[in-house]
Amino acid sequence: MLSAVASAGALAIQLLLVLLVLYVLARWWQRQRLLRTLRMARITVDELHQAMRAERTPVVVDVRPEASRQLDTRVVPGALLIGAQGIDRTVHDIPFDRELVVYCNCPNEVSAARVAKVLMGQGYRRVRPLLGGLEAWDAAGYGIERKLHPAASSGAGRLTSSTLT
Question: What is the pTM of this model?
Answer without folding.
Answer: 0.70
